[in-house]
Amino acid sequence: MSSTEAATPTLQALLDAFNAHDLDAIMSFFTDDCVFDTPRGPAPGGHRLVGKQQVRKGFQARFDGIPDIEYGQDRHWTCGDRGVSEWTIRGTQATGESIEVRGCDLFEFTDGKISRKDSFWKIVE
Q1: Is the pTM value of this prediction over 0.85?
Q2: pLDDT of 45-100, one tens digit each?
Q3: Of 7, 66, 84, 100, whose Cβ has the fewest other Cβ atoms within 10 Å?
Q4: Count of CB atoms within 10 A of residue 36's CB?
Q5: Upper half-sphere CA count for residue 58 (Cβ side, 13 Å)
Q6: Any idea what DSSP says for residue 37?
Q7: What 3 state SS string does 50-118 have?
Q8: DSSP assignment letter at 40
Q9: Taking Cα atoms as reference points, which of 23, 15, 31 lies closest to residue 87?
Q10: Most distant CA pair in the chain: distance in Å?
């Protein structure tokens, strides 16, 4: 099996773990020195979180900010050590406002695990 064939089901399983809000399962997909570039932050690249502890806190913040977040309308693909997931998130923000955003994640893989996740969201105006 090629790395592309192996990685695509991994991205679906990762999304399933996000929908279960299971941080332990989510973090099992990542390398110890992983990087998460958030969709928002002080720079054009968002806010960079480095290492499993920071990345886990970033994902927890997402669940805290949108407690009922659900990822749907998804598709995933990989090519070598890169991957992409497209999705729509829906939920209710901690402020009580509904949110529906189309976005994608760009992934880099190292030794079968995710070493970088770079998230992009459409801005709704």
Answers
A1: yes
A2: 899 999 999 999 999 999 999 999 999 999 999 999 999 999 999 999 999 999 99
A3: 100
A4: 24
A5: 23
A6: E
A7: ECHHHHHHHHHHHHHHCCCCEEEEEEEEEECCEEEEEEEEEEECCCCCEEEEEEEEEEEEECCEEEEEE
A8: S
A9: 15
A10: 46
